[in-house]
Amino acid sequence: MIEVTVAGLGIAPPSSLPLLLLKEREGERVLPIGIGPLEAQAIVMPLQGIRPPRPMTHDVFAEMIGSLGGHLRRVEITELSDNTFYARLTLESDGHEQFVDIRPSDAVALAVRTETPIYVAEAVFDQAGIVSPQGMEAGEQGGSGEAESEVDESKLTPFKEFIETLDIDDLDAGAGGGESRS
């Protein structure tokens, strides 16, 4: 698993759908994940320090985990199958870990609220990760050529075009959800 930070949110051309960008904490690859507008709002609000007058669903869920004596230990993007990303939460309660299947957008919305580390499986990065424009300029190569040849590049074109318009270093530095907790 590779630890990532939330590099930003944007709009993916030509669909105009929100795009979540997860960047390797120690690397140059970026993982673009298409999400819905409500999910984007649920992620961006805590990153911008906006607190709604009433708690949103993710706020309630995070509060319930804590009130039941649990702790969100980590969020993992575990798989990419048929153009669908899969994720899971690792919850700890009374020294026992439990895993919960969840959509990646909901997992990230919880992670940014609870300052929980986010991880992506190496295989997922190999399938859908893109080297950020800054990494390409530095002459770095992303992933193994073997894994990249298995990906349908035409499906990634809109994401690549969007990422090329971004300056990853200028995105919100506080978007990573805090320091990693092991």
Structure characterization notes:
The chain has 182 residues and is an alpha+beta fold. The protein has a single domain (2-172), classed as Bifunctional nuclease domain (Roll), CATH 3.10.690. Helices cover 34% and strands 32% of the residues. The protein is built from seven helices and eight strands. The protein has an eight-stranded mixed β-sheet with strand order 6-5-4-7-1-2-3-8. A hairpin with a 4-residue loop joins strand 1 (2-12) and strand 2.
Secondary-structure-based class equals: alpha+beta
Q: Write the CATH homologous superfamily.
A: Bifunctional nuclease domain
Number of β-strand runs: 8
Task: Give the quaternary arrangement of the chains.
Answer: single chain
The chain-level mean pLDDT equals 79
Features:
single chain, 182 residues, alpha+beta, Bifunctional nuclease domain, eight-stranded mixed sheet, 8 strands, 34% helix, 32% strand, globular
Produce a short descriptive summary.
With 182 residues, this protein is an alpha+beta fold. It is built from seven helices and eight strands, in the order E-E-E-H-H-E-E-E-H-E-H-E-H-H-H.
Element layout with pairings:
Blueprint: E1 2-12, E2 17-24, E3 29-34, H1 37-47, H2 57-67, E4 70-81, E5 84-93, E6 96-102, H3 104-114, E7 118-120, H4 122-128, E8 130-131, H5 133-137, H6 145-149, H7 153-164
Parallel strand pairs: 4-7
Antiparallel strand pairs: 1-2, 1-7, 2-3, 3-8, 4-5, 5-6
